[in-house]
Write a structure and sequence with these properties.
This protein is α+β, with helices and mostly antiparallel strands and about 300 residues long. The protein folds into two domains: about 100 residues, Sandwich (Immunoglobulin-like), CATH 2.60.40; about 200 residues, Lipoprotein localisation LolA/LolB/LppX (outer membrane lipoprotein receptor (LolB), chain A, Clam). The protein has five helices and 21 strands. The protein has a twelve-stranded mixed beta sheet with strand order 16-17-18-19-20-10-11-12-13-14-15-21. Strands 2-9-8-5-6 form a five-stranded mixed beta sheet, with no helix packed on it. Strands 1-4 form a two-stranded antiparallel sheet. Helix 2 packs across helix 4.
């Protein structure tokens, strides 16, 4: 009887130690070679475990992995956004904690637009000389070339622009147009007429295109396709194809291609598809960003004899 009591006491005395020993025997969780993150290309992930003879099980569909799940391959190629989960299970059926990592895969288009977001946040103004070539290929080939200077300014979410046209086909042609607060104004110095269009706000994304516009703002108004890197006048640019989401804009401008400098949030070149048989090429040079603009940059040069027409 004494021997039995002694043995029982010994067992109970050892119980805390046994519990601690059991805690020490917990199965370590698997480890991923790549932490969660955002990437612009496919990534390779390896899942490893430190417990001998333990089997690693993985899922990529959001389910909790168990020994009924698929075994983790030697490496996992992540080509699209997913959440990877893994667990280690011993031969005795003891499982580790489940670990997970989320890999967000974006294409190069996303990367370009985010660079524009960063550059646009610093943008306040731009001045640039331009050449606008309006080309007709059908029914009869024709081409008009306009030269001048453009100005763009942003204050918070407010935007305004002006284009001072000095020459048309090499001859003096004092014309100007401005846009501010949803109103587009066109002034022709030869006829001394100013036309105002008060419902032009839907065309703002077209007028501000590539000058201080963030990637987020572009995505809001346009369906964007990334066409790859290119160089314009020695400057590295990203080429984007834009299709307007607004039906009225799309009707007038079915497609726009821009070459944008993502470090300054400015366009160096734009091609506007204006329907069958006609398009317009806009090239900008002598671009100055975030410098003081002329005080009359956005002032139409009207006079007492100017005829005002509201439309």
């Amino acid at each position: 009887m004494k021997r039995f009591v002694y043995f029982s006491a010994l067992v109970f005395a050892l119980l805390p130690g046994r519990a601690a020993f059991a805690d020490d025997m917990k199965v370590p969780a698997p480890q991923f070679s790549l932490a969660s993150g955002i990437f612009t290309s496919a990534q390779t992930v390896k899942v490893t475990g430190s417990t001998p003879n333990a089997v690693l099980y993985c899922t990529i569909n959001g389910d909790k992995p168990t020994k009924s799940s698929l075994k983790c391959p030697e490496q996992i190629v992540v080509a699209e956004t997913l959440t990877l989960k893994a667990v280690a299970v011993t031969s005795a059926g003891t499982a580790s904690e489940v670990v997970s990592a989320t890999y967000t895969i974006h294409d190069q288009r996303w990367s370009v637009l985010r660079k524009l977001d960063a550059a646009a946040a610093k943008f306040t103004s731009t001045s640039a000389d331009f050449e606008f070539d309006s080309v007709v290929t059908d029914p009869a080939p024709d081409k008009d070339v306009q030269n001048g200077t453009a100005y763009y300014e942003r204050t918070g979410t407010a935007f305004k622009m002006a284009a001072h046209i000095d020459k048309l086909n090499g001859k003096p042609a004092p014309k100007m147009y401005t846009y501010e607060k949803g109103v587009l104004k066109l002034y022709d110095g030869l006829t001394n007429q100013q036309r105002s269009f008060s419902k032009a706000s839907k065309f703002e994304s077209y007028l501000m295109l590539g000058f201080g516009a963030s990637g987020t703002a572009l995505e809001d108004k346009w369906t964007i396709t990334y066409l790859g890197p290119d160089t314009v006048d020695g400057v590295k640019t990203e080429k984007l194809e834009l299709v307007a989401k607004d039906a009225d804009v799309k009707k007038n401008i079915p497609k726009v291609t821009i070459w944008v400098d993502t470090t300054r949030a400015v366009s160096l070149k734009q091609i506007f598809d204006e329907g069958p048989g006609q398009y317009r090429v806009c090239v900008y040079f002598n671009i100055k960003v975030n410098q003081a603009l002329p005080t009359d940059a956005f002032t139409l040069k009207t006079n007492a004899k100017t005829e005002f027409i509201n439309q």
